[in-house]
Amino acid sequence: MKNPMLEAVSLVLEKLLFISYFKFFSSGAPGEDKAGNTLYEISSFLRGDVLEVPRTHLTHYGIYLGDNRVAHMMPDILLALTDDKGLTQKVVSNKRLILGVIGRVASIRVDTVEDFAYGAEILVNHLDRSLKKKALLNEEVAQRAEKLLGITPYSLLWNNCEHFVTYCRFGTAISPQADKFCENVKIIIRDQRSVLASAVLGLASIFCLGLTSYTTLPAIFIPFFLWMAG
User: Fold this and answer.
1) How far apart are CA 167 and CA 136, in angstroms?
2) How distant, in Å, are the alpha carbons of 4, 69, 121 from that of 138?
3) Which segments cross the bilayer (predicted)?
4) Which one of the listed residues 161, 168, 182, 208 is annotated catalytic?
5) Catalytic residue flag (residue 161)
6) Which tens digits make up the pLDDT trace of 188-214?
7) Considering only CA atoms, which of 120, 132, 146 is closest in space to residue 52?
């Protein structure tokens, strides 16, 4: 049986992480002209390499399959609306991506290096050094990625592009980015100033909106739960 409290906490964390994604989305989107102005040394990439695109707050990951093809997980709301591959195989736009995150639908798809990176710098196999894990053989990495191609559920915390890549590369699906985000949330919760801030906001909402159940209950329970969690 699922724990309602854990599900609620997970939902809140995902929404907070989603909010932090907005700046990532706005800093560059697939299909923009920027992608066509950047040249990549594709000949230096090996089949099975992990390609990483650092952005302002987050990093997008993919597996290089050779021949200018990259397998990567992309949220896409269009997958829930149509089976027309002619439409879904087009480069995912910003709106499709954001709505895909909200709808928790994605696909592990193949795009060109240019469409994958959309003009950003590409790092190669940086995860090997940052995680200090032994990678599988490159051919096995690529084959794992190819076997997973297709529609998949999406979750910012539990099943994102980093989970996909680390499973293919190391055999274990992990996401240091999501883990770091959760640790930062824990730090905020443990800071007693969060209790005071939530109490002040609660009182302000009561003052502005009146003494009602939808203002009073959050004003009481949110500071209480933060205090208990801290």
Assistant:
1) 10
2) 41, 15, 22
3) 195-228
4) 161
5) yes
6) 555 556 556 666 666 666 667 666 665
7) 120
Burial class from Cβ neighbours inside 10 Å (0-12, 13-18, 19+) for residue 60 reads buried
C-alpha pair distances (Å), 12 with each of 17, 18, 156: 9, 10, 11
Q: Which residue is it, tokens 């051919």? A: 139
Task: State in Å, rounded, how far the first CA of the chain is from the last one.
Answer: 27
What mean pLDDT is reported for the chain? 78
The count of other CB atoms within 10 Å of the CB of residue 8 is: 10
Contact 177, 191 (CB under 8 A): no
- C-alpha 211/C-alpha 206 separation (Å) is 5
Q: What is the pLDDT of residues 106-154, one digit of tens each?
A: 999 999 999 999 888 999 999 998 888 899 999 999 999 999 999 999 9
CB 70 within 8 A of CB 86: no
| Tokens 């710098």 sit on residue | 121
Q: How many CA atoms lie within 13 A of 104 on its CB side?
A: 9
Find the mean pLDDT for residues 179-193.
Answer: 65
Three-state SS for 60-101 is: EEEEEEECCEEEEEEECHHHHCCCCHHHHCCCCCHHHHHHHH
Token pair recorded at residue 225: 């739960």
